Amino acid sequence: MVPAAVPPLLAAARREPTPYTPVWLMRQAGRFLPEYRALRARHGFLELCRNPQAAAEVTLQPVERLGVDAAILFADILLLAEPLGVGLEFARGEGPVIHRPLRTAADVARLGPIDVEAAVPFVFETARTVVRVLAGRVPLIGFAGAPFTVASYLVEGGASRDYARTKQFMYQEPDAWHRLMALLADATARYLNGQIAAGAAAVQLFDSWVGALSPADYRAFVLPHVSALIKAVTPQVPVIHFGTGTAALLPLMRQAGGDVIGLDWRVDLDEAWARLGHDVAVQGNLDPAVLLGPPALIRERAGDILRRAGGRPGHIFNLGHGVLPQTPVEHVRTLVDFVHEASARP
Ligand code: CP3
Q1: CB-based burial of residue 94 (10 Å sphere; 0-12 exposed, 13-18 middle, 19+ buried)?
Q2: Ligand 1 atom nearest 78 alpha carbon
Q3: Are strands 95-98 and 88-91 parallel, antiparallel or unpaired?
């Protein structure tokens, strides 16, 4: 394939016309590809992340296998939390665990700034390797966790249903909370800029769990930090700003920044886009569970999303969240092919 002058994904992020609607998938490497599972049978998750050769291989697997319009760097949003000395572990079948969570203002006062270059050189090396192998075929998307989502892991110690400890910390220790958020926002901007310097052509900020907050709390405790972070990202590089459960927060997320707002599947794309304003691009938003259904249903639901996008420039097709691990690979291929064919513009 000859690389397009402007890859469709980057054109869509800038709301320029594209020959078809570009598509990529979050958590694409995430355990649904047999070639990923084969590697994971032999290596720990963090071990793979720290090995640029292996991480580059995993990054490229979905591009080869699925024909998506971008590669997403194989890494994790919590890699940047590790240098804080909180004891990060990916326990088998449980997701991430933080062994020494931040529970008091004193815990936060002890944190020094994160030396990003020293902490995660392997991420930048992975990006350089991927970009070299891709040779312009599709762009590489870099990513990081947004400050709230990363802070929620640091405070809770792992996943949470109600984010009660995080909110308690926010309300009881607002100064320490803002210090933590500012520290994370600063390190995250440098982390994303390092990925961009290593060749990432766009970056996604994952605020996966920010939907736990009310609009008032988002405004007071999150928005200023995300806004500062996004302003500090290298100019001209599209930023995709994603969260889940964000129906009520979309206008505030837009205000915080980003060239593209990521929509989860709980909203109708046309209605959400109208609310955001058509002068910002959107990404989304098929329910990942639909990929567990039959191919005819996958095409019907994906077709509905394309209809709602209405052929307007500035739509990047994606799932409303990550691919579920039990998803059949052929179903994902069906989706990618369908989006390309159904959205082809003469
Ligand atoms: O899309 C990709 O595969 C790119 C790499 C990527 C990973 N994590 C690899 C991964 C990306 C973009 C992430 C982001 C990430 N990590 C987020 C934001 C995205 C989201 O899902 O909202 C979050 C919240 C995390 C933290 C994290 N890491 C969790 C909650 C888990 C457990 C996942 C689960 O469902 O059990 C991880 C582990 C992880 N990160 C895996 C992968 C491929 C699975 C590790 C394994 O092989 O067991």
Answers
A1: exposed
A2: 26
A3: antiparallel
